[in-house]
Amino acid sequence: MRTFLLILSAFAVILVPACSGDKGNSAGDPIKIGVLASMTGSLESYGKQTVNGFQLGLDYATQGTREVHGRKVEVIIEDTETKAEVAIKKATKLLEEDQVDILVGSSSSADTLAVLPLAEEYQKVMIVEPAVADSITGAEWNRYIFRTARNSYQDAIAGAAAIAKPGVKIATLAPDYAFGRDGVKAFKQAAEKLGGRVIHQEYADPKATDFTSHLQKIINAKPDYLFVVWAGANTPWNQIAEMKLQERGIKISTGVPDLPALKTMAGLVGMEGFTVYFHTLPKNKVNDWLISEHKKRFNGQVPDLFTPGGMSAAIAAVEALKKTEGDASADALIPVMEGMSFETPKGTMMFRKEDHQALQTLYAIKLEKGTEYPNPVLIRELTPEETAPPVLNKK
């Protein structure tokens, strides 16, 4: 019996380091980060911006070494095709075959919501970027989820600050899925707190190219403002101009989109709204580095709307790994990430302990005439405290 116990003890000693390695603690193994992004599909430009930003962020945060505490950082990118069923398949592949330590993504709220349960099942930290649906850090949240992207409430608070005041009548136009409905719900609450009134809501097919019927209903409702929540290449801006909403006395307001969409908004010069990011607005050394390095790597092009988000997600991952001395297990990462502050192209972000939503700066802007596209000119910064959303996860 004594011999058996000695053999069993020796076997247990052998197993300890092996189990530790499975949790991401092995000093010799690389840290693997799986990035889910829309590299094709309706949000392709968003996915590519995020991936470019993530790669830049890794280089910035590790000073070009791609190494944390002696462990190399490897990035594996998978295309969700902007389809939830594909996102699940690709995330499963990253977790089971590639055995990634951390997940990042995705471009679509629907894709992201489909993947959230896998982060919990496999006990891996997932950094959400750039999906914004409130339910990600709300009803569908679990403790493995951290979000560097802003959520719909943060957008809504910024959007309402631009136009809502007592007596103002507002209509909304949004895509008919989680991103759009969450965005309108949050905007309505924020606008009504400031005395505005949402009198009409229109939801269009996310893949729509003809917005005529929706815009006519909005015209018939006779609002003072139309607030638009939209994402994707199929924007409604040209039809809004063609149907002369502004000439009918309906002012337009929205979150400023990425540069290709901004080029279609020449008819909205003078509009007041908000933006998540425009390269000339943040004044800090991280953003200066991003602009300079992005121009070097991408033929003189400036970073676009979702590039800094990808960079912020990478910086967050690296800063957390530095604090855990390279331990990529969720048990090590979660305690240091809760309440963690880190510097990004948008200034200081902080993961709120209650729901792991990153509090961050947004920007109230006015569109002025530019050469290639209307230029968002800063009215004022909206501070992380000012745009802090309610805690929605009920945990």
From TrEMBL:
<comment type="similarity">
    <text>Belongs to the leucine-binding protein family.</text>
</comment>
<dbReference type="InterPro" id="IPR051010">
    <property type="entry name" value="BCAA_transport"/>
</dbReference>
<dbReference type="Pfam" id="PF13458">
    <property type="entry name" value="Peripla_BP_6"/>
</dbReference>
<keyword id="KW-0732">Signal</keyword>
<dbReference type="InterPro" id="IPR028081">
    <property type="entry name" value="Leu-bd"/>
</dbReference>
<feature type="signal peptide">
    <location>
        <begin position="1"/>
        <end position="20"/>
    </location>
</feature>
<dbReference type="InterPro" id="IPR028082">
    <property type="entry name" value="Peripla_BP_I"/>
</dbReference>
<feature type="domain" description="Leucine-binding protein">
    <location>
        <begin position="30"/>
        <end position="370"/>
    </location>
</feature>
<protein>
    <submittedName>
        <fullName>Substrate-binding domain-containing protein</fullName>
    </submittedName>
</protein>
